[in-house]
């Protein structure tokens, strides 16, 4: 019982950005702040900093916004370290902010997330499966190649209208290579979904990926036909 009480006497809120993590620790009536790199070394420094402040890592409730950019990797690694990573859902968080009389733009503040974590005790987040993470990486890579193709097609038109025939022909060959890469990515995604049936649809499937969504998930649900 003493172990459980100790775990719930400290709470952490984390504000994420592309390069930095801002962590706020509530413990024993104190509010401590630490700014770290948003990378593996930074996550380890965060663990060391908490331990130096006599905080037990296992079971420590940590709250962040998983809908914020650059938060996914941090959440996954901290969960692997044994922390109870909690996703601050926008609706519940905004309700807490209104009840506290705070401005709406405080929703991403690390200190607000830490206090919300202590008050609401949100449910721990379940990290996605490695298969789901890999699927999202495949989809992001596919998007990158598709965007590159769009850029090359735009250049192709400009070379044609400028009478630059040699450049036009070279670019046509490069676009053909990109088309082959796109098909390879699509087949890899299909095979991945077949190997892992029941995967949820990642957010990367929205909009641009509707065709891929029909191709992969539709084929998977139909038994690959």
Summarize the structure.
The protein has 225 residues and is an alpha/beta fold. The protein has helices at 2-7, 40-52, 72-80, 90-99, 110-120, 130-161, 165-195, 210-221; strands spanning 10-16, 20-27, 30-37, 61-64, 84-87. Strands 3-2-1-4-5 form a five-stranded mixed β-sheet.
Provide keyphrases for this structure.
disordered N terminus, 225 residues, 8 helices, 5 strands, single chain, elongated, disordered C terminus, five-stranded mixed sheet, alpha/beta
Structural account:
By secondary structure, this protein is of the alpha/beta class. The protein is 55% helix and 14% strand. It has 8 helices and 5 strands; from the N terminus they run H-E-E-E-H-E-H-E-H-H-H-H-H. The protein has helices at residues 2-7, 40-52, 72-80, 90-99, 110-120, 130-161, 165-195, 210-221; strands at 10-16, 20-27, 30-37, 61-64, 84-87. Strands 3-2-1-4-5 form a 5-stranded mixed beta sheet. Residues 1-7 and 219-225 have low confidence and may be disordered.
